[in-house]
Design a protein that fits this description.
With 311 residues, the chain is of the alpha/beta class. The protein has one domain. 27% of the residues lie in helices and 18% in strands. It contains eight helices and eleven strands. It has an eight-stranded parallel sheet with strand order 9-8-7-6-5-4-1-10. A three-stranded mixed sheet has the order 2-3-11. Helix 4 packs parallel to helix 6. The longest helix is centred in the middle third of the chain and has 17 residues. The two termini are 18 Å apart. 40% of the residues are buried.
Length: 311
Amino acid sequence: MILSVSRRTDIPQFYPDWFFDRLMEGYLYVKNPMNSHQISRIDLSPEQVELIVFWTKNPEPMMKRIRELEDIPFYIQFTLTGYGKDIEPGLPDKRRLTDVFRNTAEQVGKDRMVWRYDPIFLNGRYREEYHLRAFEEIARGVCGLTDKVVISFLDKYGKTERNMKGIPVEEMNEEGMKKLAGRLAGIAGTYGLRIEACAEKTNLSSVGVSRGSCIDPVMAEHLIGGPVCRRKDKNQRMECGCLESVEVGTYDTCLSGCRYCYANDSVEAVKRKSTLYDVHSPLLCGKVEEGDRITQRKAKPVREDPTLPFL
């Protein structure tokens, strides 16, 4: 199976010891976000975990333990944008994060690195020209450290709209998206980067941006060393091209405080949930309570023939 670590929170930045300790223990628990009394037990044995996909805005805290993954293929999706503290208040300076990107790539190899510049939105401060300058500065900084950049435009989830309250966002039509995406594609090409779009309804291929997959079958096959079962993740949006994966994160636990966040309900919700953090618990920021039902999650092999050895 593929582990998604995590769409719901930044485990590499805030909870790396919890995750690596769970790998050592060989299992973890995940509560169903729609029914908190339903808990899945995830088997983390090397026989079950075939690939780990990390999602993060700062993997530096995780890197001290990254060598513990010598027997498990993985790659890192590193979100690095041009927004300031008004939008991403909990992150270090972006030039420092560019150095973190470099250091991470030098440790794990550029084939395990994906740069994400998302989500993109426009307002009085963050105009199109601002994004182009920021994108080029970051592209220059990560040139040679990755082959791929992923972009997406802001989606207005309910939590996103609440977290963005007070921040103006201009509506972008299809023509405007294509214009900006095309200019970003030109910059990406200058720095040797393949550019893809994440779950966009608008087809941007005409301006040089192909449809992408964050949990990518091409990267999976490269890192695993053989063909994979290309099962689309039914839990994601129709436009999403991701492979099926097992999500291990918990909502309302990311401490970055990004205003466009779709995973945190509010600052108050994060404060409440973070008080439950226990590095030794099988649950991330949670406890097993009376009435909870724990069931073993069935793992689906990602390799086409799981009896074949890695190549």
